[in-house]
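FAQ

Q: What does a record look like?
A: Structure on top, sequence underneath. For example:
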């Protein structure tokens, strides 16, 4: 039977779908990539080998539906794509393993740290990893002594820059309604970078690829360049290896001005710009597939093509509505 990969919450992740196909081919496998999503209008559904409608990942029926899907389609590997579905897949992971299905997801503990910016900040501080000073919004509004403008205010559980504000005046800070879910951070130095890594079954991170963000659209990178920065690569490796039960594709967001760096976020999944890392030599999808299909270990020192850029544009898929 073909090696079957399920791309969950496929949405607009056509580049990731194509990368998984390419990775399976590079691994020498006869493979099929299927998708699931809550809506048939998700573009990736129509470019996969098969697409399946499932409930929203927060729906109580999601777990039973995707478990049945993995069983009926003989899924070998599940690749989750959005933060809100990670806890569900982490809970399902042990039972799916008994069916022969591997889920590329970290432990519930690691997902909790990555999914809450307060826990991320604490994890970094306790692991001696540089990170911005952070506090609850109410605390800073009550006493701003020692803080310097501009400041970043954002939801502790947000993603894709949703709800993020750059505050440049004390009046603007005081005008933000009290919300225990909001945190304040000092502005991190320099330019934002994203580091993609693959974490194997033993918790070791491989092949860090540092991407400098050049342009972001709707919270997702649209232009980026692979750069050599050994400091940021090592910081990302330390960050994910210190997580309890990290596994699979992960990325770490870091601001850096050269001599200084600060980790701001961890994503316990493939990042939006992962196709650039694949193309540059960080074959994380291929290593994941090889580990699951053949128990092969990643190469010790992959060759990375520094300077490679990714420039994204919109594309279309045309389907008939019945």
């Amino acid at each position: 039977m073909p090696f079957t990969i399920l791309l969950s919450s496929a949405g607009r992740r056509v580049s990731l779908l194509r990368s998984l196909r390419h990775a399976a081919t590079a691994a020498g496998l006869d493979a099929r990539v299927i998708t699931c999503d809550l809506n048939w209008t998700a573009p990736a559904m129509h470019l996969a080998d098969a697409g399946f409608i499932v409930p929203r990942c927060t729906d109580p029926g999601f777990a039973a539906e995707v478990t049945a899907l993995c069983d009926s389609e003989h899924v070998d590997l599940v690749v989750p794509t959005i933060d809100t579905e990670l806890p569900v897949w982490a809970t399902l992971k042990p039972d799916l393993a008994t069916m022969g299905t591997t889920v590329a997801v970290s432990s519930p503990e690691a997902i909790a740290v990555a999914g809450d910016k307060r826990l991320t900040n604490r994890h970094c501080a306790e692991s001696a990893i540089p990170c911005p000073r952070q506090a609850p919004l109410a605390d800073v509004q009550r006493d701003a002594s020692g803080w310097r403008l501009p400041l970043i205010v954002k939801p502790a559980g947000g993603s894709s820059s949703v709800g993020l504000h750059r505050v440049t005046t004390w009046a603007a800070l005081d005008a933000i309604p009290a919300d225990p879910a909001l945190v304040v951070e000092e502005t991190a130095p320099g330019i934002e970078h994203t580091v993609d890594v693959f974490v194997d079954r033993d918790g070791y991170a491989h092949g860090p690829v540092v991407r400098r963000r050049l342009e972001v659209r709707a919270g997702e990178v649209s232009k980026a360049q692979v750069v050599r920065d050994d400091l940021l690569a090592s910081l990302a490796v330390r960050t994910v290896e210190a997580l309890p039960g990290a596994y699979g594709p992960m990325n770490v967001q870091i601001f850096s001005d050269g001599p200084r760096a600060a980790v701001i976020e961890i994503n316990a999944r493939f990042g939006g710009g992962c196709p650039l890392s694949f193309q540059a030599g960080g074959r994380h999808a291929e290593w994941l597939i090889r580990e699951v299909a053949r128990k092969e270990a990643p190469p010790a020192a992959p060759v990375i093509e520094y300077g490679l850029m990714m420039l994204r544009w919109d594309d279309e898929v045309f389907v008939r509505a019945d």
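Q: Is there anything notable about this one?
A: The chain has three domains: 3-105, 110-116+189-311, 133-186.
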